[in-house]
Every structure is written in C-alpha cells, then in structure tokens.
Design goal:
The structure is a single chain. The chain has 1243 residues and is α/β, with parallel strands linked by helices. It has 22 helices and 64 strands. Among the domains are: 239 residues, no CATH class; 314 residues, Transferase(Phosphotransferase), domain 1 (Orthogonal Bundle). It is 15% helix and 21% strand. GO terms for molecular function: ATP binding; protein serine/threonine kinase activity. One of its GO terms (cellular component) is plasma membrane. Belongs to the protein kinase superfamily. Ser/Thr protein kinase family.
Length: 1243
C-alpha cells in the first residue's frame, strides 16, 4: 500500500487551566501518531511523538472550564505545509500495516472520563468500533505523566477527534509530550523523558522546535499589559538527556562569528555564562538553540545584566526565529536588520534603555514573518513608521507600551495583518483619537491605550466591528462624551476600563448586552444620571464594579444584586441615596463594599442586611446616615470576616455598640467624627486582631480602660498580622513593607483625642510595643506622664496636649529614635525639657502652655529660662493629620541648610590654624552661652571658596551671635549627625552652621584631615563646605545657606501656602540636579564617596530651586564604632535599602535605592513612611500599584491633568528600577542621569 504522504497527530484536551492569575494549572494533552496511506486509509502508528522541523507557531484555543470537555471546546489550527515522508519514514511505518481489518479509513479517537482515562479506538466505514489502547493520567510528585495501560470499554458518544500537524521520522526512543494549554490561546511544551537517553540529533531537533516556536512566545505575554493571568512556563529535560547533547553537532563559523560580534558590542556582559567566553561551540552556549545543521534558531538572554548596544550581526542569523534580550540595560537603537529579518517570528527587547526612533523599512520590503514584537519599557521616540507596519503582514501581537512615541495611533495594523490580536500602546504620548481604521481589526482581542493624551469622543461606529474584543483599556486619557450605545455589540468584552477621563452622560442601557463583562472601571469621570438604566442582572460574571467619584444619582439599582459573582463594589463619592436592599445578601462573594460620601439612610437596616455577608472583609460607609442613632441591636451578630469597618463622619449618637465585639477578625476601626457617648467598653481587648483604633472627635467619657492596654496585636512584636491584601483598591497590604523595626502596612494607632476622658494615663500603656501613634490630646487627663511610655520603641507620634497633666517630662523619651511628632502643650508640666535625640528637633510650640517647664540648654540654669506662654493661635487644637505631616519622618533628619551669598561673606581658612581671642560683646546673653569659658582658645579654620583671596576672619563669637547662642528658633535641620542652625551675620549675609554630635566625632587631627579632604569635593549640585570650627570637644561645619530650604519641606510641610506648590517642571529640575550631584561623588571623587543618607531633607534648594546634595561624606567624620544615626541603622527610615538589614554596610547601590525613594516622593508627594494616611510604606505601595497597571494613581493629585503625566511616568519607571529589591539590578547613577536628562521639562 504505497507511500505515506502525510503525517498527523491527534490532540485531546483533558483539563482546563486555572483561571486565577499566576496559577500553574494547565491542560494535559496526549499525542499519538496516525499514518495516512495513499489509499486514504488510516492506521494507528505508535505511541510516541516526534518533532517537527518546519517553522511555525501552534495555536490552541481553550474552552470554558467544564468537568467534561465537549468536542466543540477543543480547537486547533494548522499553519504549516506537510512535507513528503522520506524512505526512512516509510520503512518505519511498516507499509503493510496500512491494510487494516476495516475496509475504509481508520482514525484514532479519544474519550474523556472523569477518571482521567483516555480510550483509543478505530472506526471503520461500517460504523463498527474497535478498542486499540487505553492511556491513563497519573499524578506524580511534580508533573502529570502519561502512562499507557490496557483497558477496554467506552461509548461512541464520548469519542472526539482533533488532528494537527505531521511528525517527521520517528525518534529512536519513546517520549511523552505534554502540551500545557493556557487560557490565552498559547501553548507551552513540557518534555519529559523516561530513563533512556534519546538520539542526540533527533532530540536536539525537537528541542529547537520547542524553544523557537512554542515555549518562549509565552514569556512575552507574562506582564500585566497583555494578559492578567500569569502563564506557567517550565521545561524539564533529565540529566542523561542533557548529557547526550554533548555528542551533538557544532554551530557553523558564520553563526559563531555573528554571535561574537554581538558579544563585542556589549560593554558589560557579566551576566553571560562562562561558555560564551570560553566555549568554542556556540550551540552549547547557554541561551542558544541550534538546528541539526548548526543554524542558530533561538537566542534567549533575558535578565543577564547586559549593557551596550544590540549588534546588527544578529540580523545575519538567517535561521533565527526567536530573540529575547529583555530585562537588560541595552541602549542605542533597535537595528533595522532585526525588524526586517526574513526569519525572526518573535522579537522581545522589552525593559531595556533603547532609544531613538524605529527605522522605516523601504516600501519595497516584502512581507515579514514577524508575529510577536515586544519593545515595551524603553525610551523610543517619534512616530510609528508607516511602511514598517505595512510590511508586518503576519503580526499577531504588538507591545509598544512605556515608551515616548508621539503622534496618532498607527492605522496600518489590521490592513496589513488580518490576524492582529493584541495591541498594547499604554504609557506613551499618543494623541488624537482612536483611528477609524482600527475598526478593521476584527480579530482584535485586547486594545490597551491607556495613559496617553488621547482625546475626543469614542466613536461607536468603529467599535462595533471589534466583535472579538475581550479587553478595552482607554483609562487615564482625555476622552470626552458618552459611552457609545454600540458598545453593547461587544459580546465577548470582559474588561472595560475608562477611568480618569472626562466622560459624561448616562450609562447606556446597551452596556448590559456585554454579558461576559468581569470588570467595569469608570471611576473619576463625570458620569451622571441613574444607574437603573443598566440591567446589571444580564452581567452574571461581573466581579468588580467601580463607579467612584462620579455624579450618579438615585438609588442603587436592584439589578446589581443579581451579579452573584461580585467581589468588589465601590459606589462612594456620588449622590446616591436611599436604603440598602435586602437583596445585597445575594452577593455571596462580596469582599469589598464602599458606599462612603453619599446620602444613604437607615444604618440599622444596613447592618442587619450586611451582617450575614460571610466574605465581607472591608466595609466603608462613612459620611452617610447623618445624625442617626448608631444601632445597639444585639441581634446584629455577624461580620465574622470583617477586617476594616469605617463609619466615621456620620454624626452618630449613642454608645459604642456591642455588635462590633462579634467582628472577631476586625483589624481597623474608624468611629471618629461622631457624637458617641459613654465609655470604651471592656470587650475591646477581645478583638485580638485590632491594631488601628480611631474614636477621636466624639463625646466619650470615663477613664482610659486597662483593657486597651491588653490588645494582643499591640503588645506583640510579631508583625505577621496584617490586612488581607485582597481588599479591593484599599491600600492595605501585608508583609512586603516590613523594614527593620518599623510597624508596616498601616501603623498601629490608638487615637482617643477630642473626647472627655478623665483619670490618669495607665502605666500599662508601655506594654503596647507595636504602637506607632498615641494621641490622647484634648481630653481631661491628669497625673503624670508614665515612665513606661519610654518603652514604646516604635512610637512615631505622641500627642498629649491640652490635658491636665502634671509632673516632669520623662527624660528617657529622648531614646525614642522614631519619634517625629511630639506635643505636650497646654498642660501643667514642670522641670527641664529633655535634650538630645529627637527632642533637639521639636519646636517651642510642642512645649508651650506649660509655664513651669524650663530649658536645660547650653549652660543656662534650668530656673533661668522658661517656655513662653502660647499665642491664641497655638492653643487651638492643631489639625491632627497636618501636625504629623508637618513634622513626620523627613523633617530635616540630618538636613543642612545651604546657600552662601557670595560676594557678601568672605570666609577664611588657614590650614595651620589660628588661635583667636574671643572678644566679649556687650550682649550679656552671648557671655552666658556655652563655650564662654573656653572661647579664648577657639580654633577657627576656614577655607576660601575657589578663586577667592583671604578675607575677613570669622570668630566663633561671631557664630554665637549670629545664631543667638544656638537658639532653638534658629534650628533649620536635624539628623543623626547633629543640628543645623541658621546664622545671620551683621552684614546681612547668612550661613548654615552644622553642630555635630560631639560624642561621635573623630579626634581633632583626624577630623581636620577629613574635612579638608571633603572640602575638595566641589560641584554645582553639591553643598559647598567652606570651613569648620573646633571648640573644645565640639565640632562645627560651615556651609552656605539656602533660601528655599529642603525638598522635604516643600513637598510635605507647606499645605496652607498656595505659593509653595512645586509644579512638575520644578520637580524634574530638582531630580536632575540632585542626580548630577550624586553622580559626582559616586563617579568623579577619588575615592568614591558613599553618601549613606540620601533623602529629601538632604536635597537643598536655592532661590532658583537649583538642587544641592547635602551631608555627603559626613560618615568619614564619625568614629568607627559609632553609627551615623542613633537608630543604629545606615540611613533614615523609609530610605534604607532592604539589603542593609543583613549587613549595615553602606554601598553605592544602597544610595541608588535611597535616591529612588526621593524620586518617588517627587512623583507622589507622599512621605516614604506615612504615619496617619491609610496606606502602606511608599515603595511597596508604588510597586504594588505598578504591578496592577495603576501607575497614574500614584502620581501627586496636584499634578494630574496638567499635561505632564507621560514625563512623570517615565521618571516613575526610573525610580522603580532604583528601588529594586535586588541591588544588582539597580541602575548606576550615570544611567539615571542619562534617563532624566532625556526628559524635557515642557509638556
């Protein structure tokens, strides 16, 4: 029976992959060979699988999850021609076997059973069936392994056939091949070999096929811009198989030469394996795959730390099908030889530093085989070249996000490539509207063009053609107008993202025709009208509905309660009213519910309904139910899963209800801003997970109960208890934010302020080791401040103001190194104010209103000075959050003020030293200051600014007078090294005098030598060190004075001053200047200087907002056994890189992490560690939002809508690279300088 003309393989889909992101669930597919004879008869050939040498990509589309997979849920597509079988193949088939018992065609069929059993069969033309084999799936320890066994019995209706590509000649040994079928329509191949090593050449041929055509296509789609689901990738070849590869063929000299040219173009190749430098056979180099003839088919080198440019020699590799150079630091342009390659089908150069424009291909360029192109996360500019995209006739997916492309969205994709499926253009500078030609993309599944400057109305006439669209993401643009009615024709749409636009009007009723919708995100627009126009009951798959910050009116439509799969519902900040319907109980999976800032009524009804929501973890209903009585109904006994309860600002009356005690998993409780009365109930300590309690601004009475001091989480130092990270949109997260001794995520808070509590502060309060914020202000507390407060080592905010406290301030409070906001004003305290530590940074207003307090400052006697009475303004209750933000965490922690009015002040430095007799001035206060007894022996050493001549000598007495005896009113900065004072000289010029902590400094000779060396570091963006003074054991550094203070002050401490707003061009200017200063000490200074404490308070600004890096090199002035901060850490909390937790050794890479945090401050306007805001630490929060494709939401709201979003997002990418947890992936400062310099300040 003649020769075999065609081979085919039979595939069967057993299990659907898991639908959850990142899951490794997959479908198992078994392959059998089937030979077709010239007589059209079919026979079962063998249970083994051979490779296919013909290039191409296999696409399989999965159906929906079912326990039994019907026939119409298994799909395959053939894309390759069928070559003729050679003589060896015909021999292997055993031709006589084509004469089967059946007199007509035979085919191998499969049946699916819940027992995971396959049954093979042959069907004859007569309709008879014959059992041929049984194959079972066995669950092994790591993988699913196919084993053949004999079994019989099946039914015809269970038999399903699917046929795909042919195999070439069979392998010498048997293998099992599993295809992992993912829900995104892509295939990954898992090769598992039993004990026998395979024929070397045939195995290599198959691996080449797997690597070049199936495996790595998936890796392009693993980021959030393409598919939300992570794809499971895994290739396993046993050791004996890998060993057999040593016997395989070698690459050609031509191929090797091209790869070596690529290697020569790299300036940094430390990430490449040693085989690239020492091996002679490039087919054995890691990341290289070859065919049988030595032709390179795949180059796979992601995340290797490569620097330099991409050589055009890679385009000479005529057999190269797959090229992945992603996640490196490659720069320069993209060689046009790669775009015009006649062989490359998958090209991935994402996450590099490539720049320039994409080269336009000649109009005569033939159709290219390129199917997948990923150039995302680079710095490409310009418009998309039209002729280039016209040549991409086979393009399936394009990811060009996170670049700087301009102009309109290209119009040629679907005209040239009818199979175009994925278009990702987010985070660019595209303008104009959605091109009408995009309506030709009938197979388009994902359109993501968010975070651009797109505008105009969304044209519904073109959208109607996108019948296969699954994801439509146009958020964070400037679209206006209404949602087109024709959107209802997108029957397959699952995700609709239109957030942060200027769209308006009512929601179209046709939206309910999109029956597959899972996510609707329309937040922050101007939509209005009633929600009842949309029949949400037609959206059974809806899981997330976010309508925050719009103008919707009316009641919550009943149809929403038919969305039984809803897990997150946010309707806050609208104008909705009415009562909650009892049907909300139908939402069995509801986890997040936000109804705040509306006009809902009947709190008792709402609680009775919601108490049975077993999955509800976050309930935000504040600023509703105004003036009602908070229900005390004891029948409210649910909320067993609740973690966050917010009913603040409702003006409730009544007592703290007992039903809260039944929310046994409650972690955060917001009851502030009501009119609650009575005492704090004793059951509060039974809430064993509660770590955030805010009952401020009520009318509560009684003593502070001891049960508050028994709250388990606040007593424990175990930080494992945090909010579940699955809460929707609420920035409450768990473990990753942990940094040393800082309580992470939300800080632990106990806020009882603005009530009527009486009695004493319990001594047991010192048990709450985790507490970060303790606010008992504006009550009627009496007695002394207990010494146990000094045990609260994590305390960041302590406010005991406006009570009736007496006695002394505990001196040990100065050991609370994280204390950044402190107030005891308006009490009846007495005795000395503690000095040292953070107390040197607190202003007089923190102590005012205590006439019996005295200042132990310098050599003043404590009874010779007192704190002045407060002004009327100071006695009023400060805004709680503002007081924290004004002082918290960065308020000049070690910042030095800088700017010398050159030409008005001449400072003289004499290296040999000059003893100057300290003249007594007529001012008696100066004579009474410290150092007065030794001023005659003051050593003043000053160095002139470069290019200046010797001038007026500056005496230490002049410094005393200029600082008013180092009065606290003149403190302009503080940190681990010491305090900074403003000194104003008689001629009107100003200096910044840094008084170092004397107990930490080097001896005089070593100190002088180090200062002399530091003064040589001169750069336009470094604070110039003009001189120093040595007075006894004290050390003083003399700097220029900066009129505009520190960046920290401008970002975080000037809320009420509209003129203090920093626009984006100014912030970008500051970032560029600071990077240049850091670059100088890192790369130019010899030896290099590690700053150790980069932070916003060490970025100082002159009158033109030019940035200067301050405090560099000060660690060299400190004794080796002293750390430069009192927390015994290198750096300042929030800026400390994670690796310092293992070894407190400062590095250049650590500086880069800290600088990345500063960039994030500039972008977000937030502190690295925010005390009272409902958010986590800055870095983890930003990275989390970025991973969820919500980058724009982290940007400072005061900067949004001003046309700078694209630039800010570019800087955000640089900042995120700097704060990479892996220090070896952080860019050098030169790279950051280059990146920032390429960004223009103009929009």
């Amino acid at each position: 029976m003649g020769s075999t003309t065609r081979w085919e393989q039979t595939y069967k889909h057993v299990r659907e992959p898991s639908s959850r992101s990142g899951a490794s669930g997959h479908a198992d597919i078994f392959l059998l060979q089937v030979a077709k004879c010239e007589t059209s008869k079919w026979r079962y050939a063998q249970k083994q699988v051979a490779s296919c040498t013909n290039p191409g990509i296999l696409h399989l589309t999965a159906g929906k999850q079912r326990s039994l997979v019907p026939k119409d849920h298994v799909h395959t597509a053939q894309a390759f021609p069928q070559p003729q079988a050679d003589q060896h193949q015909r021999k292997a088939i055993n031709q006589p076997a084509c004469q089967c018992q059946c007199q007509s065609s035979h085919a191998t069929k499969f049946r699916i059973k819940t027992t995971d059993t396959f049954h093979g069969a042959q069907q004859c033309a007569s309709g008879e069936w014959k059992t041929t084999a049984n194959v079972t799936i066995r669950q092994s320890s790591r993988d699913k392994v196919i084993r053949a066994s004999k079994s019989r019995g099946w039914k015809r209706e269970h038999v399903i056939t699917q046929q795909v590509n042919h195999p070439p000649r069979p392998l010498r040994n048997k293998i099992a091949l599993l295809l992992v079928l993912h829900s995104n329509g892509l295939v990954h191949t898992l090769i598992e070999t039993p004990m026998i090593a395979l024929d070397c050449n045939r195995l290599t041929e198959m691996i080449a096929r797997v690597l070049s055509r199936q495996l790595y296509i998936l890796q392009i789609f693993t980021n959030c811009f393409f598919f939300k689901r992570c794809l499971f990738l895994f290739t396993k070849i046993q050791k004996d198989v890998r060993a057999s590869k040593d016997k395989c063929y070698s690459c050609t000299e031509t191929e090797k030469g091209s790869l070596l040219q690529f290697l020569a173009g790299l300036s940094q190749d430390g990430g490449l394996p040693a085989t690239w430098r020492n091996g002679t056979d490039c087919c054995k180099w890691e990341g290289i795959t070859c065919r049988q003839d030595g032709t390179v088919t795949a180059v796979f080198l992601p995340s290797k730390g490569l620097q330099g440019h991409i050589s055009q020699s890679l385009g000479v590799l005529t057999g190269l099908q797959y090229l992945n150079l992603s996640h490196n630091s490659l720069s320069g342009g993209l060689p046009p030889e790669l775009m015009s390659s006649s062989s490359i089908t998958i090209l991935d150069v994402s996450f590099n530093q490539l720049n320039g424009t994409l080269q336009e291909l000649p109009s005569s360029t033939p159709a290219q085989p390129l199917q997948v192109l990923n150039i995302s996360s680079n710095s490409f500019t310009g418009q998309f070249p039209s002729t280039t995209w016209k040549a991409m006739a086979n393009l399936i997916a394009l990811n060009a996000s996170k670049n700087r492309f301009t102009g309109q969205i290209p119009t040629h994709f679907c005209n040239s490539s009818p199979s175009f499926t994925v278009l990702e253009l987010s985070f660019n500078k595209f303008s104009g509207s959605i091109p009408p030609s995009l309506g030709n993309c009938s197979k388009l599944r994902e359109l993501r063009a968010g975070y651009n400057n797109l505008s105009g109305a969304i044209d519904g006439t073109h959208i109607t053609n996108l019948r296969n669209l699954v994801v439509l993401h146009l958020g964070w643009n400037n679209f206006s107008g209404k949602i087109p009615v024709s959107i209802g024709q997108l029957k397959k749409l699952e995700e609709l993202h239109l957030a942060y636009n200027n769209m308006s009007g009512e929601l179209p009723s046709a939206l309910s025709n999109c029956t597959n919708l899972i996510t609707i995100d329309l937040k922050s627009n101007h939509f209005s009208g009633k929600l009842t126009k949309v029949n949400f009951s037609n959206l059974p798959n809806l899981r997330i509905l976010d309508l925050w910050l719009n103008n919707f009116t009316g009641e919550v439509p009943e149809s929403i309660y038919s969305c039984s799969n809803l897990i997150a519902l946010r309707l806050s900040s609208n104008n909705l009213h009415g009562q909650l319907s009892s049907r909300i109980g139908n939402l069995k999976y509801l986890s997040f519910l936000s109804l705040g800032k509306n006009n809902f009524t009947n709190i008792t009804n709402a609680l009775q309904i919601l108490k049975s929501s077993k999955n509800l973890t976050t309930l935000l209903m504040g600023h509703n139910f105004r003036g009602e009585i908070l229900s005390q109904d004891e029948t409210i006994d649910g909320f067993g899963s609740l973690q966050v309860l917010d009913i603040q600002g409702c003006n409730f009356s009544g007592r703290i209800p007992v039903w809260i005690s039944r929310a046994v998993n409650l972690q955060m409780l917001f009851l502030c801003g009501n009119r609650l009365t009575g005492s704090i109930p004793g059951w509060i300590s039974s809430l064993s997970h509660l770590f955030y309690m805010d009952v401020s601004s009520n009318s509560l009475t009684g003593e502070i109960p001891l049960t508050l001091t028994e709250m388990p989480v606040l007593k424990s130092t175990d930080n494992a208890t945090h909010l579940d990270p699955t809460v929707f949109e609420l920035p409450v997260y768990n473990g990753p934010a942990l940094q040393y001794r800082v309580v992470t995520s939300f800080p632990a808070v106990l806020n009882l302020s603005n009530n009527n509590f009486t009695g004493v502060i319990p001594t047991q309060i010192g048990q709450l080791k985790v507490l970060a914020v303790l606010d008992f202000s504006f009550n009627k507390l009496s007695g002394q401040i207990p010494q146990s407060v000094c045990n609260l080592a994590n305390l960041q905010v302590l406010d005991l103001s406006s009570n009736n406290l007496t006695g002394a301030i505990p001196a040990a409070l100065n050991t609370l190194h994280f204390l950044s906001a402190f107030s005891i004003s308006n009490n009846d305290l007495e005795g000395p104010i503690p000095s040292g530590g953070q107390f040197d940074t607190f202003q007089n207003s923190s102590f005012s209103g205590n006439p019996k307090l005295c200042v132990s400052m310098l050599t003043h006697k404590c009874d010779s000075a007192s704190i002045p009475p407060p002004s009327t303004k100071e006695t009023t209750k400060p805004r709680y959050k503002k007081s924290v933000f004004v002082i918290a965490f960065g308020v000049f922690f070690g910042g030095i003020a800088v700017l010398l009015l050159l030409g008005r002040l001449i400072v003289f430095i004499r290296i040999n030293g000059i003893r100057i007799r300290n003249r007594r001035e007529n001012n008696g206060d100066i004579e009474a200051t410290s150092f007065y007894s030794s001023s005659e022996q003051t050593l003043v050493v000053m160095r002139m600014p470069q290019g200046k001549t010797e001038g007026t000598k500056l005496k230490f007495a002049d410094i005393l007078k200029a600082t008013n005896n180092f009065d606290k009113e003149n403190i302009i900065g503080c940190g681990g090294y010491g305090l900074v004072y403003k000194a104003e000289l008689p001629d009107g010029s100003k200096l910044a005098i840094k008084k170092l902590n004397s107990e930490m400094c080097l001896m005089e000779r070593e100190f002088s030598a180090e200062v002399d060396a530091l003064s040589m570091a001169q750069h336009d963006n470094l604070v110039p060190l003009w001189g120093y003074c040595i007075q006894g054991n004290s050390r003083f550094l003399v700097y220029s004075y900066m009129e505009n203070g520190s960046l920290d002050d401008w970002l975080h401490n000037r809320y009420d001053d509209a003129s203090s707003f920093l626009d984006w061009p100014t912030r970008l200017k500051i970032a560029k200047g600071a990077s240049l200063g850091l670059s100088y000490i890192h790369d130019v200074c010899k030896p290099q200087i590690v700053h150790r404490d980069i932070k916003s308070s060490n970025i100082l600004l002159d009158k033109e907002f030019k940035a200067y890096v301050a405090d560099f090199g000060l660690a060299r002035l400190i004794l080796p056994d002293k750390t430069h901060v009192t927390t015994e850490l290198v750096g300042t909390m929030g800026y400390i890189p994670p690796e310092y937790g293992q070894a407190w050794v400062a590095t250049l890479r650590g500086d880069m992490y800290s600088f990345g945090v500063v960039l994030l401050e500039l972008l977000t306007g937030k502190r690295p560690v925010t005390v009272l805001s409902t958010s986590k630490e800055l870095v983890p929060w930003v990275l989390q939002m970025r991973s969820e494709c919500k980058q724009t939401e982290v940007l400072d709201p005061t900067l949004r809508g001003r046309g700078y979003e694209e630039q800010m997002l570019e800087v955000l990418e640089t900042a995120c690279k700097c704060v990479d947890n892996n220090q070896f992936r952080r860019p050098a400062i030169t790279e950051v300088v280059s990146s920032l310099s390429s960004i223009e300040a103009a929009p």
